[in-house]
Each structure stands twice: as structure tokens, then as C-alpha cells.
Amino acid sequence: MTATLEPSYQPLQPFGPENGEGEEETPHEGGVMIHVVPESGRARWNHVEDLDSFFVRMYHYHQKHGFTCMMLQEALELLQFIFVVVFSTFLLHCVDYSILFRNSPINTSNHKISLSDAVLPPHECVASLGTVTWLCILVAVIFWFLRAIKVMYHLFQFWDIKIFFNTALKINDSDLDNLTWHEVQHRVREVQLEQQMCIHKRDLSELDIYHRILRFKNYMVAMVNKSLLPIRLRLPFLGEVVFLTRGLKYNIELLLFWGPWAPFKNNWHLKEDYKKVGKRKELAQYLSKYILWVGIANFLLCPLILIWQILYSFFNYAEVIKREPGSLGSRRWSLYGRMYLRHFNELDHELHARLNRAYKPASQYMNIFTSPIMTVLAKNIAFVAGACLAVLLILTVYDEDVLTVEHVLTAITVLGGVVAASRVFIPDENLVWCPEKLLTAVLAHVHYLPDSWRGQAHTHRVREEFSQLFQYKAVYLVEELLSPIITPFILCFQVRSHALEIVDFYRNFTVEVVGVGDVCSFAQMDVRRHGNPTWQTSIRVTSPLPGQTPIEPGLTNQYTQAEDGKTELSLVHFTLTNPKWRPPEDAENFVTALRNQARRDADQLTQVLGPGDNALYSSLQSVSSLGAGFSSLVASILRTNPRGYMEPSMGVGYQPMFPPSSSGEKGGVYESGGSVPSTVRGGLSRAEGPLNSDRGLLYSLHQSTRNNSLGASVFGCGGELAPDPDTLELTAADMSLSTLYLHELHHRHVHRRGYQESSINRSLWQRPHQDMPGIRELGDESGETQRRAEKTPLLLGGAKLPRSS
């Protein structure tokens, strides 16, 4: 293969209906509702200089329940900081522990010791403060004043956002929880048409808004996807460990995004030097030096940060551990897991909703793995500790004076903790061994798991790798406590060595979008440039339906393609959560082809000899195991198949997943993006997109069977999807089905071609030493469109690339 490498950085123009797909509609022609805003309000919101920060604050305002809740939280955090500093100083210097522990006699022998006897007078307390304590207090005071100034700044910023919500969007704070982000975003787009907050383009698409809110997070997700970050450490006895804590993540974001010497000139523009291939080594040396100085600063501040981490963790977790000692044995999604499992262009509340749904099957999966040795030891330890605890409790009930005996109360507390901790290692005797089923349920919600795990869910290798995504709370707490010590060394000796690769990443994967600025090219969800052929070939090889444009092979290779189907799944997720978004031609062709493939598989159900012969059938069977709502949905689809294939037993208490409307009107049904019935109002600020979408597989299956009973029993009267608010959201169900179906198609293609995908701990990707081909312009604001990329095969750095399909 040969290729022409273009070292120049070229802008990417916006795509969509406003650029060459037809003339723009005026607000009145398009049926857009216009908010009447006073002229002063128009001037106020016209040409917002920093739209990134404005949209981020607007999103946080919606998610954090408005002005009052946000300011109250920040004010109480200031008071909490004061409490931690004052209370810690009081415990260290103002308490006479010799009197409290009766190690020193007091004046009156018959005097009963009270807390006031053990508290030193104020002048003695102040006199006992040493130089180190005064230094810590001084640093704490400076930090508190800086934090107070930041809170005051936020006060004015979010007051401005409050006025924007109340006047421009016509949304009161009391209504925030009753509106999905999808509805808020729709109103923002209407205000943009009316007031031109962004002057570079008239109409902001949903993707433009997401790009501005998630600009830096998309870069982080892409770096994690390409294994550039985080750093993996090989430790004795532990093997390879992924270390990413809040402190380390904060320092990486400081270095790469918003710090004073970061590659970004401002929130929306990458420095020009980072776009030039000739500057790569010079910039890498500069970035390496910057990383070194930040690492040294972390090392100097390590004692203070460590003290704060210990104090805050103690006050935050001590009571919880005393009340529920087994809480440290529960699990949580790690920071690395959240970055690895995140889609491109996925907001925080959308990610949290997915991970919350996956928490239960993930916990069940991890709990089925037990160590026989640990189980035997835990049972015997729990037996001995429980026996001693029972004796002490019986003696205490018989005579309460037993509690006055030295260390009896301490022994009861410790023994109770030992018993609770031992039970963590004792498996539930009623536990059912079904690892593949549980891991499939996890995949349906998290959407990303390595292909090498398929069929290996029962192995400890997969369990250990999954534990890096889903870790013990105790492990999380230990990592956070050690973070101030480990972070400086990781920055100085690990991250610095990747400076050149980071510079190359910015240059090769940054595009300029008119009206948005510089964004990560992966976030464009371009299936031609960043798609994985093994996730598309299984759809492409099938002949398209009449009127459908065939999917052409993309310009991807191992370096440019996203791993684990990230581009394809992110595109499907975004189209479901934003059904009104108009994707570019290639993206639209991929989504349409996926839906048409599902319809073909649905039509072929009668010809299937076994569940392994039809990808849709296998996916539906997996979805049915996710819960009652999902199983009812699958049962309705299979039960009403037009050819009568497979009619599962419903049982006496079966009710349709989507009950038909009681009337012929659409009053009980809402279209995608429409108003939500009052019966499901409340708490919608955390909902994933609209509760219903016409862009997914469920709608596609409905279209293929709308002339039979499925249209009435499942999708309600009028031909619209009719979700039952008491079961599940259709968007989430649709994404779960799409995920399993895409994974099934991908697995079948890989199995046929004999591919072996790398596991989650794949080695660091190879970076090229030359620049990537620039992206061609897609069009301009006047509406002209051009080809988006050359069809010339790529050759990186003069090295022959492996075949990707």
C-alpha cells in the first residue's frame, strides 16, 4: 500500500441539514415555538463568549436541582472544612487523654469523670499548639479563603444561569426535576435560533452542545480507549494494576486540559503549535518538563494532602464502618472503569444510569467467585469471634457493670467487626452458578467488555480483569489514601515518558468544527475514519434493502480505529438518546443498516433450526434474562411473530410489556421528544434522553410487524411506542438490545474469519512517528458539502499496517 501523508491540520466543517441538505427552515416554518423574551434579555444572551463553560454550568444546574441546592451544598462544604480543621486540632491539642483514660488521678477520689474534666482550658490549648500545627492551620486558612472566593464566584455565575432558565428557557427551579435533559436541550436550541448565543452558526445541533459540555472528557475517553492512559503498573504478587485515583485524574486534567501550561489555549481551542508535525519533539520536551514540575509540586505538598486525606476519610467512613463493617466488602465502579465504559458524547447522568442498572448483576457475578481456603478460614474465625462476642453480650445483659471493666466495650466492637468482615468471604448457600448469564447481563448495561471474555466468564482471569473495573470499596479507600504518595512518582517516572505520544495524539485526533472549536475526532463518531471494520463487515456484507445506500469500507487501521466497537456503540447510543439528531450520511447508513439487519433476522425466525442460527434470537434471549420488564418485552415480540414462531408460556399473571392505550387517541402515548404523561413525572432529570425513541431496534421490529397483533399488544394504538412507566424506559431497553445484537454480529463475524481480539490488558498501542492524513472539509455555513475523507489506503510511518478486515 502507498499513501500520501498530510502534515497540515485542516478544519472540519459541521454536517447536518443546515449544510447542503436543504435550505434552513425559519422558526415559524419549522413549527418552532418562540419564547417571548424582553429586549434586555436578548442582548444579555446574544453572543456568549465562553459557551463551553456556559453549557457546563447549565447542565450542572439542571442535574443538581437548581440554585438553592447548589449554593447550599457549597456553603455547607465550606463549613464542613472548618469543622474538620477545628475538630482535628481540638482532638490533638485540647484533650487531656491521661484523665480521659483514668491514667492520672484527679483531685477528688469520689468525683465522677466528665468530658469537661478532660478538656484543657483555652489558654493551655492555644499554648500547646506547635510550629507544625500553626503551619497546617495557616495553609488551611489560605485554602479556605481561596475556596470561599470560588464559592462567591459560583454564586454570581449560577445566579446568571438561574435567570437564563427562568426567563429565556421559561423553566422554574421547582420544575427542574420534572424535565429530562433532552427537553432542556430542546429549549436551548430554540433560544439559540432566537437569540444567537453562538454567532458562528445559526442552529446548534445536539452534537454541538454535547461537544461543548464533554470536550475534555471525550479526549480522556479516547485516550483510555487507545490505552494511552491510565498508567499500568506491575507490582509483586499483584501483577498488572491499573492505578487511577481522583488525585491523579485531577493532575492529568490539569496537565492536559485546563492548566496554565496545558496544550489548550482556552476551553475551545488547541494551541496552534500542537497542530504542526514539525513541533512535535519540541512540544514533547516542553510537556515533559511541565509534568516534572507538577510532579515535584505534588511531592512537596504530599504531607499536607496526605493529612487531609486521612482526616477526611476517617470522619467520612468511621461511623459507616462501625455501623456496617461489611460495607468495605461491597463494590463500586472504579474511576478507570467509568472511563473505559463511557461512550463518546455521554453525559454524566446517562453513564450513571447505565452503571447503576449494571450494579446488581455485576455484584452477583463477582460474588459467585469464592476461595475454598478463605471460606474455611472465614467460617472458623467467625465461629470463634462469634462465641466470644456472645459470651460478652450475655454478661452485659446480666449485669451492665461489665461494660465498666477495662477494654470490654472495645472487645465487643472489635469482635463484632471481625464477625462482619468474615461473613464477606462466606458465600451464600443459595447462590446459583451462572457466570455467563450474569456477565451477559452486565454487558447489556455497560455495553463494553473485551471479546476475549466471551465464553470465559467462569475463569479467574476474567474475574481479576473485571475487578479492575468493579473494585472493592476497601481497595478504593486504600488507593485514595496512598494517592498523595504514589501520584508524584507516577507523574515523574511514568506519565512523562508518554509526552511525545500525547502530543501526537492531540495532532492526529483533533479536528476543528465550525461553531464548536477543536474537538477530539473520535467524538465525531465517524464510522469511516474511526470505526472498526470487524464491527461493520457483518452488516455491510448483507445486501441493502431497496433505497438504502451500501456501507463502504472505511479508512480505518489499527491506529485510527477505536477499540471494542467504541465508535459504533457510541453512535447507536447517541442516536437513541437524541432521536432528532441528523447524523452524516455514513453514520446514518450504519444505523439504518443495523435496523434493517434486525428486521431481516426477525423475518427469518421461522427458518431458524436452533437459537445459535439467528443473531437477533440470541440477543432477545439474553435480553429476556435482565428482569421482568425485559422478559415481558421479549415474550411479546416472540409471541406475536407474524409467522407464529415460538410462543413462550406467559403464565397466569402475565401482562403485556406495553399495554395498549385505553382510547384511540394518543393521549396516553407520547412520541419521541414529546411531552411526558403526568403519571411518570418526577425525578426525570436523571433520565437517559427521551423515554422513547424511534431510532432503535424496537421501533424497527415494530415497523416489520405493525400489520399484525404486535402493533396493538406491544406498541399500543396509533402505531407509537407506549412505554409502561412502572417497568423500564424504552431507550434503555433499546440500547441493551442494540448492544447485545451488535456484539453478537461482531462475534459471529470474528469467529468466521478467525480473528482474536486483544483482551482488556492489551499492550500500549503503537503510535506513528509521522502525522496522520488531514480530514477534508465537510462543507461550510453556506450549505456546500464536500467529500469527508480520501479513499486512499493509509500507510503510517512507512510501516505496513495489518489488515483490519
Automatic annotation (TrEMBL):
Q: Is Transmembrane found in the keyword set?
A: yes
| GO BP terms, alphabetized | autophagy of mitochondrion; lipid transport; piecemeal microautophagy of the nucleus; protein localization to phagophore assembly site; reticulophagy
- Does Transport count among this protein's keywords? yes
Q: Which residues cross the membrane?
A: 78-100, 126-146, 290-315, 373-395, 407-426
A single GO CC term for this protein reads: phagophore assembly site membrane
Subcellular location, record wording = Preautophagosomal structure membrane
Query: Compositional bias (Polar residues) at which positions?
Result: 1-11
> What's this protein's family per the entry?
Belongs to the ATG9 family.
What's this protein's function? Phospholipid scramblase involved in autophagy. Cycles between the preautophagosomal structure/phagophore assembly site (PAS) and the cytoplasmic vesicle pool and supplies membrane for the growing autophagosome. Lipid scramblase activity plays a key role in preautophagosomal structure/phagophore assembly by distributing the phospholipids that arrive through ATG2 from the cytoplasmic to the luminal leaflet of the bilayer, thereby driving autophagosomal membrane expansion.
Protein name, UniProt field: Autophagy-related protein 9
- Organism (species): Timema bartmani
